[in-house]
Every structure is written in C-alpha cells, then in structure tokens.
Amino acid sequence: MTLAAPLLALAVAAQVSPTSPQIRAADFARHVQRLSSDAFEGRGPGTAGEVKTVGYLVEQFSAFGLEPGGDVVDGERTWTQAVPMVELTPKGAPVVAATAASEDASLLFGRDVMVWSPVVEGAVSVDASEVVFAGYGIVAPEYEWDDYAGLDVRGKTVVVLVNDPGYATGDPELFRGRTMTYYGRWTYKFEEASRQGAAACLIVHEEGAAGYDWTVVLQSWGRPQLVLDAAADETPTEVEGWISRPAARALFTAAGRDLDQLSVRALERGAEPVALDATFSAQVDNAVRRIESDNVVARVTGRSRPDEAVLVCAHWDHLGVREGAANEDNVYNGAFDNATGIAAMLEIAEAIAAQDPAPERTVLFLATTAEEKGLLGSAFYASDPLVPLAKTVCGLNIDGVNTMGPLQDIAIVGYGASELDDDLRAVAAAQGRTVVPESSPEKGYYFRSDHFSLAKVGVPMLYTDDGTVGVERGEEWVRTQKERFLKDRYHRVTDEFDPEWDLRGAELDVRLFHALVRLWSSMPDVREWSPDSEFRAAREASLRGAAASGGGR
Asked: What is the tens place of the pLDDT at every residue in 380-434?
C-alpha cells in the first residue's frame, strides 16, 4: 500500500535531485539525434537498422556500467532477449462472402469489411459460418457483465460492437463511463472471441467509438502484419476484422434484424445474444516469413532486495523505410516516437547506475522491439519475463517525451488505475507541477503502448503524456503544437530531430521519471491497482501463484 501523504512527500523529497549530473538536455538530444538519423534506417525490426540500434543501446548501457539482463546463452547472461516473430503478408485481397435469409449478401473487401488472419499458416478459410450478434463481446466479472453467457460460438462468426457500454451511454456508473476500459479495446474483442472458440470475429466500426475513421482501418490492416511466433502454438480465431456500420446494418436488415435496436438492447446487463439467419465466409492466403528480433535488457542489481525489480521500458523500434523514388525522403526516423523515450531511458539508466549506494531493488531497463507492430516485444516479455511477474513491483513506460519546453503539469494516461498516480503526483509537486488526467480517455490510449502488455498480466504500470499548459506560452500554444505533430509528423517521414526543440521540458520530465524510479526501487512497500481495475485480478492471481510455489514476497 502507498505511504500516507506526509511520509510519501518526505520520501519523494529525498529522491528528487535538481542537479543530477547524469541527466542533461544535451546528452538527451545527442541520443535522439543519433537514433533518429537516416543511418539507423527507421529502426525497423529484423532489418540492418535494428542491428545498429541494438548495438548502440548495448554500447551505451555497458559504458554506463549496467549489467546484461537478457537471455542466458552458453551459461552467460546476454544483453538481449530473442523475440521470435512471423510476418504475414496477404497474397492479394482476401475473398469474403455472406448470405442473409439464404440469399447472397453483398460484402466488398475494403469498402464493407477489412479482414485478415493471425494464424501462422498459408491459406486460412472460414466457410459458411453461422453469424451471431454478441453485443459488445465482453466477459467482465468485476462489472457483472457477460455477453457470451449461455452461448456456444465454436465454429461461428461473432459480430460485436466497438468500445464498451459505458462509452455508448456516458453513464459513469456503467463500466467507467466515457473512459474506455480494456474491454472496449479492439484487441480484447478478438482475444475473447478466440477464448470462446469463434471461427471469425467482426467488429462493427464507428468512428467516434473507435477513435479513428475507416481509412485508418484500411491503412493499418492492408499491409503485412507481424505476430509472435509463439502464437503458432495457440488457437486464435481463423479470421479477424472490421465491418463498417452501414454494411453491418444492411446485413442485419437482410437477415430480418435491426442492428440499431439490437445495439440499444446490448447496453443492458444480461442482454441475450442473437443468432442471425446469415452466414459469413472468408479466405485469406498469407505469405509467411519468420523474423529474428530482440528486446535489449540491462539491469542495476538491488543491494538488499535483488530478487525484486522495478521495470523501465521504452520501445526502440519505428516504421523502417518505405518504398519510393531514390530522391524521396523514405526513412521513418521516429525521432519523437520513440527515440525520445529511449533517450530518456538511457539518461535514467546512467543516473541509476551512478547511484551510491545502489538502489534497494533491482532496476530493469527493457528496450522493446515491435511496439509499432502490435506491442509484440513487450507481449513476449510478459509471457517470458526475465524477472518473475510477482516480483516485479511496478513499472514505468516512456513513449514520447516533451519537446515543447517547461510545462506546468503532466498528464496520466489511464488516470486512477493504480496507486502509482499518487507517486507521480508527489514527485510532480516536488517540481512545482501538477498532475492532470489525459484529455481523451475515450480513445483508449492506455492500451496502445508497451506498459499495457505488463498491465494485462498484473504488473502495476504508469504511463504519462505531455502536460497541457506551457510555463511561458500557455495552454493554447501547447494544444496547437500537439495538433500539428499529429497532423504533420506522427508516423510520417517528417518525425525527425528538430534542433529548434526546447528540451528544457524534456530534462524536467526525465528528472521526474528518475525520481519515480528511485522512489520505487528504495521504498519498503508495494503498489496496487485500484479496486475497480480490470488488471487487479491478474495481479492477485500472480501473487497467489508465487506464494503457493514458495516465491511470494
């Protein structure tokens, strides 16, 4: 449990060092500029850019005096954790078809549906699968909600709504109101359909509820996909995808049902699923290519509790190089996303390694691969952790660091999820700053970066965003800068190092993160999820399992 506020304030005051010589804006800039240079070729997993990136990280961690924290090979601990992945590239457009009331129903790939297969095979097909509407496709015991209750969907196609009932109603007493829970995220919909044994799952797309328009669906899933090679041992749904709201409405109408009425009924706890007089068929033919990639792992071993760890993670990868003319700018440099996060990690690592005395707990630095491809590096680590999950006290994920100068505040993504919020609030106060919730909680940003992989298996994780008010330029200027980045640079070749960045704010944030890590690695108590968190049960199960095997705290 978190210390009482006065004790926490005293503990924080002991950790916040405004003059830590290891954390400097100039060094931060040097790391960002190097990692986002054209020489690193956009840091694509499985490319020459990865080799250069991994080499640079190992060089820096070693120079700072950290120890290798990765796989053991031939009896020696290495700097990397191998992450086996598979690239699935569709051979042409998938073939889709549907019937309603025994009549052919028009479904056009790209316009009406966007489907793919996560199965690590060549050709995958679903043939005349019965269609079932399963509401929001959610099984959430803590909310007393089960859209699959009494329903057998083995071999069938489930159609589900995006987001969750709280968003649709705005009722703060239903799930978390307009704040998206994990159950509203599209990844959860597919995972639950797989657990239920469905052959296919189609999510009904709506721009507001999804947080992006149909064009994003086309761009995201119309290109090669990476999956973990470990997934070959699992049994995912054969076909996953999206169906546009107009196309879904037309299919339901042809089957004698009203999608809009069923959507309203799906907002009620205990609403029964509805079998449609319809079938769905799809065939996907993938080219399969295995890719070798690595997480980079370094550690500072704790002096009194070395078996317990605080995790600091940031993804090293970006989008690589695009095809195009030789005279075009084809490198996705990923300067902000996420060379800044890796630079922050390196600065923190240097400061922790120089700490005397060493921290009480081990601090593990995890630079992940393939975050941009679906959080694959962190997902693999969560399934094969280098420190037991029950012994991982908590963690911080850094994905993008403020380049706009000093800000009066800092935002928490997933505000209220855990006791870590109190720690950030105390550390920020020591800097004369405040903490605010994220501005768009309905978009589910908490589920879009690497901390989420660890949260799913129970590890309390903190994820922040830039603040909202500039010390010198106010709120409107900050808002404009964020909008310009999303419009002009996010996931574009224009995300390059800018010598005009004001990195005073970056230095402040890195010092704040460093203070958090020092606090977590030295305090005697542990951190917990909030009582209503969807991740609390996973944490409790992890701790029970460790205690039963003799590995409890």
From this structure: 999 999 999 999 999 999 999 999 999 999 999 999 999 999 999 999 999 999 9
Q: Residue 72 contacts by C-beta under 8 Å, 6 or more apart in sequence? A: 78
Q: How far is 181 from 193, CA to CA, in rounded Å?
A: 17
CA distance 422 to 420: 5
**DSSP codes joined into one string, 311-350:** EEEEE-----B----TTS--B---IIIIIHHHHHHHHHHH
d(CA 420, CA 428): 12
Name, in order, each residue with C-beta under 8 angstroms of 488's C-beta and a sequence gap of 6 or more. Answer: 494
Q: 528: Cβ–Cβ under 8 A, 6 or more apart, which residues?
A: 1, 418, 419, 460, 536, 539
Cα pseudo-dihedral 317, 413, 309, 314, rounded to 10: 10
Tokens of 312: 């600091």
Is residue 78 within 8 A of residue 246, CB to CB? The reply is no
Q: Each residue of 469-527: pLDDT tens digit?
A: 999 999 999 999 999 998 899 988 999 999 999 999 999 999 999 999 999 999 998 99
- Reading the block at residue 368, the tokens are 């992940």
